[in-house]
Amino acid sequence: MNCVINTLKSAIKEALSGITFDYRDCAYSISYVIDVKQTLKHMVQTKGYAAQDAQTDLAPWNYEVREVGPHDVLIDILFCGVCHSDLHQIRNDWFPGIFPMVPGHEIVGRVAKVGAHVKKFKVGDLTGVGVMVDSCRECDNCKSGLEQYCLVSPVSTYNAMGKDGVPTYGGYSKNIVVHEDFVLHVSEKLSTAAVAPLLCAGITTYSPLRYWKVGKGHKLAVVGLGGLGHMAVKFGVAFGAEVTILSTSASKRKDAEALGAHHFVVTSDEAQIAGVKNSFDFIIDTVSAKHDLTLYLSLLKTNGTHICVGAPSEPYEVPAFSLLAGRKSVAGSGAGGLPETQEMLDFCAEHNIVSDIELIDIKYVHAAFERMVKGDVRYRFVIDMATL
Amino acid sequence: MNCVINTLKSAIKEALSGITFDYRDCAYSISYVIDVKQTLKHMVQTKGYAAQDAQTDLAPWNYEVREVGPHDVLIDILFCGVCHSDLHQIRNDWFPGIFPMVPGHEIVGRVAKVGAHVKKFKVGDLTGVGVMVDSCRECDNCKSGLEQYCLVSPVSTYNAMGKDGVPTYGGYSKNIVVHEDFVLHVSEKLSTAAVAPLLCAGITTYSPLRYWKVGKGHKLAVVGLGGLGHMAVKFGVAFGAEVTILSTSASKRKDAEALGAHHFVVTSDEAQIAGVKNSFDFIIDTVSAKHDLTLYLSLLKTNGTHICVGAPSEPYEVPAFSLLAGRKSVAGSGAGGLPETQEMLDFCAEHNIVSDIELIDIKYVHAAFERMVKGDVRYRFVIDMATL
Predict the structure, then answer these.
(1) Whole-angstrom distance, CA of residue B334 vs CA of residue B150
(2) Is B91 exposed, middle or buried (CB count within 10 Å of its CB: 0-12, 13-18, 19+)?
(3) Chain B residue with minimal CA distance to A153?
(4) Fewer beta carbons under 10 A from the terminal one: N or C of chain B?
């Protein structure tokens, strides 16, 4: 809203201060004022938890979202997962953010209103929104259903500028308005709260495992048994791979078994590590903090691939010999496109896969962040939006 | 030689100083002495250029190589290429070396003598020896013709310990004795001196281009137009790829055209770089000094691969987002196995491909190192061993 008004003010100021005053500019400004007033009249009032700047904690905040356009869907948010990237972004760890910031991109909710031309959804449908709410829709990647790799830039669900010049606000809130193309169908068969993390943690691990065709006959190791890691284990097992969890501590051994992992290796135990040297076809690395890849690369087979899906703020250090001696690769993968995200949600419904979650009151979110950073969560916090 | 004698002395000392003196030990030692004496009697006297330690320059050195065993080939060396790794190793850049060290692993020569059971070669044959002279021969990789990735460790042509406990000495010398399995056939059709660099620079670039099936329809960029880089251009063009050279300076533009490259981009020119963002399927990076990969990763297409074949002593720094935003990979590849090295030599004979070389007197080798480090060589120094 503020942003729209500011854009408007600048447009008018520019038109009026022009050395060659042109009535067309003026007319344009007036028509723009009318447009904006129309829009303002129809804004949807909502509330969320927002960070006012990078130094302050999240707190209740009232704001407006746009009225549903012809292709839009208004969603009443039921649940939103807590992703490590939420904390990175409200703290400006990656880049200077847009404040106030309402984080959250693991959203499940019901359709409250649809635009006149919406075809895929009706009021009452259970839906999901992930890490994007728009993209250029014109580049080769967008045309191939790889909107996450939009060559202009995908519009993130929060902390981004929409094409209308208004910042996007995420799922730690009551409502979101999204173009139907970026809304996913969610099955009623699964636990609704436990579906939420599939929209980021789920697709972020599903997509690379599918892209690299990880399955039967492959040995897959998972590094970091958190929100993403536990989903990587579930998908790896579902796809038929032999799954090993590489953990810094022995404390999660029982949980690993419960998740269906076939093996558990404590990385500080030299004998255990010696037993898995040159053994994995793939390692999926979900760690979001700085870490050294040398050890992990030594555990890959010849031609093996270490897939990074976490996003540490500092670069990975990769010794040349760790790659050369065995034709190994370090790859990255980010979320998934819309067709693949729907495929993943359908796969989960069919195979009864959801996240293991801890449902929280939104007032607990900062305590949850602290526990998340320490790895003290099994395996994803999900906010019950009824508590907002 | 010294090493054999030392091993022998230790064995005798250990046998004699044993608390429980056993005649079998003594008998063993005596038979060992006889064996060694037999071997000594049949050592081949030769000479080379050796570094006596990591601080001194290469200088003439007389030494012995083993007499040809039943499966061995004695080669009279004609030419040896000068590889950046030669300098890295005599200076202990990578790991503490074995001194005296005779470098050189781009060897072409004629067979002077063959063992009784040698099948592949006869006296007078033109042959090549690359970066390895042995391997475990029993692991999955050795059995698959990927001896360069031997899981025990390939035995390097120099600066390594052979299975007989004697250090290996390389191609800056008059002779080398190698098991026939690690000797390659070289065609008489090509310029013999210009073939030498194919044994390392050639196979090191040929192998990854083949493994990643780089060819028609692919855009390939080459970083570092030196010994490896110019071979990558030649092979990329021969395989049908559209080849761009990414260079830090404009000075090599003409040479790039002469090598057959389709495009030339100066990386310090922002406009030129903007024109090739997200455009390459593959980048082959031949640079052996520390460098940042961020720029190069931004030039890869979605799903693109940056292939490292140089070996800087310091780790690559790879920002997570450079990989995630576009599902990109950083891979490494080291030399090639024996079947593929022979395939490459045959391909070169068929397509009339050799290295562009500057033939030098061995006394010029340190001046050549200096020019090589500055990139002042078009594109590989080759030592004429007649000058030794």
Answers:
(1) 11
(2) middle
(3) B325
(4) N
**Nearest to residue B310, comparing CAs of B147, B94, B160?**
B94
In this structure, what are the phi and psi dihedrals at residue A48, rounded to the nearest 5 degrees?
-155, -175
Please report the domains of chain A, with CATH numbers, ordered by start residue. 1-42 (no CATH), 46-197+354-387 (3.90.180.10), 201-332 (3.40.50.720)
Of the candidates B141, B278, B308, the beta carbon closest to that of A302 is on B141
- Asked if the Cβ–Cβ distance from A318 to B321 is below 8 Å, we say no
Cβ pair B316:A321 closer than 8 A? no
Q: Which residues contact B15 (CB under 8 A, 6 or more apart)?
A: B21, B22, B25, B26, B28, B29
Q: Which residues of B make CB contacts under 8 Å with A?
A: 94, 141, 146, 149, 151, 208, 211, 278, 302, 305, 308-312, 315-334
Nearest of A132, A244, A214, A190 to residue A353 by alpha carbon? A190
* Contact state of B334 with A325 under an 8 Å Cβ cutoff: yes
Q: Could you read off the pLDDT of B167-219 as tens digits, one per residue?
A: 999 999 999 999 999 999 999 999 999 999 999 999 999 999 999 999 999 99
Tokens of A220: 């897959």
- Cβ-based contacts of A211 with chain B (< 8 Å): 327
CB contact under 8 A, A330 and B329: yes
Q: Cis before residue A100, ω within 30 degrees of 0?
A: yes
Rounded to the nearest angstrom, the gap between the alpha carbon of residue A281 and the centroid of all alpha carbons in its chain is 26
Enter the ipTM. 0.87
Give this prediction's pTM: 0.87
Torsion angle of the four alpha carbons B297, B298, B301, B303, in this order, in degrees rounded to the nearest 10 = 40
Tell me, what amino acid is at A247? Answer: S
Taking CB atoms and an 8 Å cutoff, what residues of chain B touch A279? none
Among B229, B242, B172, B209, residue whose Cα is nearest residue B383: B172
Cross-chain residue pair B324–A315, CB shorter than 8 Å = no
Cβ–Cβ under 8 Å, residues A272 and A266: yes
Among B315, B326, B334, select the one facing A149 at the smallest CB separation. Answer: B326
> What tokens appear for A143 in the block?
């045309």
